[in-house]
């Protein structure tokens, strides 16, 4: 395993082009603000920059609170997707999971209805201001709605201490339910779901072992050391996935090096683009789930390209790329919304009328343009 891979090659080529490229980026940029359907990671409006780039549409949408050092990786990703040569794809459809925000249990059926055919659900837990009782009720509601063959994973976004995580995950594994090994898998699978997820069952004799309890717990605690300890304590009960410990870490490979996770969640924008994410996956040598950054369909297209470019066998299950439906709108007429539990690998075209409809206010537009300039400066600044 080598040290952290460098940002994509395009960054080092930017030196002389920086002024020119900045004008190019700003000329081709449109800033939008799209309300979310429900609060998601504290957000009710998703802001994004869309570039009408030579390769087609590209997206830059680091969350507003991220500093320039972190946001610069997202700009590298946008430049790569819009202007650079991309790694070849190996598949044309990607299975996706339903994403269930930290909603009250009674809202679960309405959320799941926006993910037709999905046989895996990722449930947000450990939300600030909520309790384990809320998480248990939400996970139970997902199991009740999706049936015994669905895979259920939870994402705590590092919200638990080690002790809290151990207690909560034991309770959530139980809430997710050990499936009845005699039940038929064909009774409960909705029409069109068969074969959509990686690992979907085809009959009662082929019960999916991952459907029992929780498929995995994503980022239950914030530190790599806590993840490693929790993984040992819960071995055989639930697998551990690392998300923030990969995408926000100075060393995204520390998780793999220290055996802190069974799999990693990778996101194209935060990791600095498709090529760099592929490098990290190769270096980590762990199974992967590609996930969204709550992007518009354009950023989802970038994630799909990453998932499609992974080596055969690298994907650990359905990807978290079905999130466009968590927004109330989009910037294309041809949104990347799941059908039969999967998404086609393609880059959607920007729609001028929708870009106008969701245009950000002048002050937010100016804020994003200044952010682009600062982040571009970071990408080209000499590193120590
Ligand atoms: O993985 C999914 O199902 C959806 C994407 C998702 O959960 C996230 C998108 C954007 C920001 C993150 O806080 C969050 C995540 O933690 O994975
Ligand atoms: Mg996560």
What does this structure look like?
The two termini are about 20 Å apart. This protein has one domain: Enolase-like C-terminal domain (TIM Barrel, Alpha-Beta Barrel). The strands form 3 sheets. A 7-stranded parallel sheet has the order 5-6-7-8-9-10-11. The chain has a 3-stranded antiparallel sheet with strand order 1-2-3, with helices on both faces. A two-stranded antiparallel sheet has the order 4-12. Mean pLDDT is about 90; it is low at about 1-10 and about 180-205. The longest helix has 19 residues, at about 360-380. The radius of gyration is 20 Å and the shape is globular. The protein contains 13 helices and 12 strands. Helices cover about 35% and strands about 15% of the residues. Helix 3 (about 70-85) packs across helix 13 (about 360-380), helix 5 runs parallel beside helix 6 (about 160-175) and helix 10 crosses helix 11. By secondary structure, the protein is of the alpha/beta class. Helix 5 links the parallel strand 6 and strand 7. The protein has helices at about 10, 20-25, 70-85, 110, 130-145, 160-175, 225-235, 245, 255, 275-285, 295-310, 350-355, 360-380, and strands spanning about 30-40, 45-55, 55-60, 95, 100, 120-125, 150-155, 215-220, 240, 265, 290, 340-345. Bound molecules: the ligand O=C(O)CCC(=O)C1=CC=C[C@@H](O)[C@@H]1C(=O)O and magnesium ion. Ligand 164 binds near residues 155, 157, 292, 320 and 323.
């Amino acid at each position: 395993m080598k040290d952290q891979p460098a940002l994509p090659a395009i960054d080092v080529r930017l030196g002389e082009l920086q002024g020119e490229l900045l004008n190019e980026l700003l000329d081709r940029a449109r800033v939008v603000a799209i309300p979310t359907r429900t609060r998601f990671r504290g957000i009710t409006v998703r802001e994004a920059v869309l570039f009408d780039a030579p390769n087609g549409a590209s997206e830059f949408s680091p969350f507003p609170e991220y500093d320039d050092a972190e946001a610069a990786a997202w700009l590298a990703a946008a430049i790569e997707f819009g202007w650079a040569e991309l790694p070849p794809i190996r598949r044309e459809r990607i299975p996706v999971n339903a994403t269930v925000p930290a909603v009250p249990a009674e809202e679960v059926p309405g959320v799941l209805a926006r993910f037709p055919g999905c046989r895996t659900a990722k449930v947000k837990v450990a939300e600030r201001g909520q309790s384990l009782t809320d998480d248990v009720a939400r996970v139970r509601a997902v199991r009740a709605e999706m049936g015994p063959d669905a895979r259920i994973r939870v994402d705590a976004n590092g919200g638990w201490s080690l002790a809290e995580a151990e207690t909560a995950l034991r309770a959530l594994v139980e809430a997710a339910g050990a499936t009845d090994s005699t039940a038929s898998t064909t009774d409960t699978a909705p029409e069109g779901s068969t074969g959509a997820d990686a690992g979907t069952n085809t009959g009662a004799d082929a019960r999916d072992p991952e459907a029992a309890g929780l498929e995995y717990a994503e980022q239950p605690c914030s530190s790599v050391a806590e993840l490693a300890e929790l993984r040992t304590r819960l071995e055989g009960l639930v697998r551990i996935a690392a998300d923030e410990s990969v995408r926000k870490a100075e060393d995204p490979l520390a998780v793999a090096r220290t055996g802190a996770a069974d799999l990693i969640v990778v996101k194209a924008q935060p990791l600095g683009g498709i090529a760099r994410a592929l490098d990290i996956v190769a270096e980590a040598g762990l199974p992967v789930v590609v996930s969204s950054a709550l992007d518009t369909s354009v950023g989802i297209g970038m994630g799909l390209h990453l998932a499609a470019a992974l080596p055969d066998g690298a994907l650990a299950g359905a990807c978290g790329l079905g999130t466009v439906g968590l927004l109330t709108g989009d910037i294309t007429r041809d949104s990347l919304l799941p059908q039969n539990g999967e998404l086609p690998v393609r880059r959607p075209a920007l729609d001028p009328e929708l870009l106008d409809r969701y245009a950000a206010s002048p002050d937010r537009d100016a804020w994003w343009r200044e952010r682009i300039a600062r982040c571009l400066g970071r990408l080209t600044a000499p590193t120590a």
